Amino acid sequence: ARLVVLVSGSGTNLQALIDAADDPAFGAEIVAVGADRTGIAGLGRAEQAGIPTFVQRVQDHAERADWDRALTASVLGYQPDLVVSAGFMKILGAEFLTAFSGRIVNTHPALLPSFPGAHGVTDALAYGVKVTGCTVHLVDAGVDTGPIIAQGVVQVEDADYADGGEALHERIKTVERTLLVDVVGRLAREGHRIEDRKVWIPAHE
Ligand code: GRF
Q: Which residues form the active site (predicted)?
């Protein structure tokens, strides 16, 4: 399967996918990496791996819809089977969702439906939860609201309240990378089906 991965930051989830894709048995190749900004480590990781990259910045377009159209065209150009949003910090618009409907996977650093949005780690911490974690889900028109594919749990430690969630987010990302690689590999090899918000990935015969 052909993957396009979208990033906005350090790209450690991307790196986990790059490393996994080195094994032909993984069943997927990353054909391109896209970002909404330049100068991020995620793009450097792609370049290091010899993977084509592209950047579509919202501020380079008169309207948000123009950016969405340009991003859609950039991704379509690589003919992906799956689009993976791995720390991509923009909401994907209607045109993008229509072009790749049901084939966009996102990873979120909280146990959805709790704590959606750009501050899931610190929102969970502020709420005083005892466990949090990460969610891999299909993207729909909402913010972090699509059908859930897999979740991983991370215990909150007392020390986490003292560092603004830094250590907690790193522990979440450790679980997240493993979960994302497992899910993307299974989707790539087995395909999937969605029935009233339940996502089914056939067990490997
Ligand atoms: C991940 O935890 C992702 O869920 C969140 O931002 C982080 C991105 O980390 N949206 P990286 O860029 O993959 O290192």
A: 108
